[in-house]
Amino acid sequence: MEYTRRHFISLLGGCAAASIPFGCNRFRKSIGSSTKPNFVIIFTDDQGYEDLSCFGSPNIRTPHVDRMARQGIRLTDFYAASSVCTPSRAALLTGCYSKRVGIDTVFWPKGDQRHANTPDNWKTGLHPDEVTIADMLKPAGYTSACIGKWHLGDQPPFLPTNNGFDYYYGVPYSNDMLPVPPNKRGKPGTKYAAVLRNTTVVEKPIDDMSRLTARYTQESLSFIRSCANENKPFFLYLSHTMPHTPLAPGKLFAGTNERRGAYGEAVEEIDWSTGEILNLLDSLGLAENTIIVFTSDNGPAPTRKIPLGSANPLSGTKFQTLEGGFRVPCVIRWPGRVPAGVVSTAMATTMDLFPTFADLANVPTPQDRVIDGETLRPLLVNPNDPKIEHKPFLYYQMDGSLQAIRSGKWKYHLDVETPEWGDTDVRDALFDLSTDPAETHNLAEAHPDVVNRLSLQARTIDTEIRRNSRPLGHLDSLSNG
Question: Which of 85, 96, 146, 330 is catalytic?
Fold first, then answer.
């Protein structure tokens, strides 16, 4: 029998009611009567690997995320599941490669005609039968909010409140997407995008894009306070619009970073926002019962006329399958549970957050479908355990083609063509990422056994994903179904 989202939630409700408390005492300390941890994901847009002070930025000041790193764990080998936004977000929320959930490319809002070769793209979105983190947590009593950028479909069936979230406030696509006919487009960066509250448009065009980060922050703080007042466990997915272009830092931050300009100012405002959330959790006594994750959806956009992000010391950018496109900064804080001040080189991915949250909340993951992520609980409990090993990770391009695989310290770029756009022509190349994260020394000829092993692994895993992929959501098929 093939289960839909409703079947899964119905079954999960029964499981949750009969479940036993989470087994490890160090994860059981409670605040009030709640025994389940709260979850917060802060997800930035197009932020480079280096672009936090604690990741080595010499000219972007991020004291609040740095504080998270001092109080928690910094993951140096953490990956988004795609180097572009829509597939990356689908993977984060479902715990699956975006290819498994039918999503390869970026969705465009209705009315944006820049991609005439895909006129029905606006009709697509994350299929309503997919199980998101919010869906998974709901039967366990969690209240969930999505604040900020969504970009998994802007038509009603695909919006957050139809995908497990109890509340949504934000822009349902990128801030550079202008849903108007080309002959009425206006100047680049013209703000035609809309702000939604749940499924209702509350502002179109955006009145002042420089206020978005502050507005997202206020909405997030209000949500946390509401859940605290009702003593309910919560999941907050705060998905920032910035530092995606067009850049619009708030007025208090604009003009304050001479070296990195609006990009650095946008990141520093996000750091301020993070500090507001940390301070509220602390003041409400929720810090020790809340796990908070800070990371990015993909690497920095290629620099054109204005300074953007930095992936140093990695090579590559957004759109590419070099490390700079996929490897992103990640900091996790959970006082009293996650050891403080730890730096881990263990590999992990955004797909792992789904099963990790399920594990920590003591709820089952769906049994009718494959989940590609794996729980990070062993890593969080004992980050220096040398026995911790992650399954191989695949690098997919935005056209859905498999380009590379990482297993342990090794990364192999398959001997396949790369798309004309976005990627460099790196083929049949093997790199030891433990000593060469910039991917400069091809070791394929010196290690043919590793090449053969990784090539076989990559194609085997890819074949399984293709065979067991699930359909993309499409308005026509949903209305006919």
Answer: 85
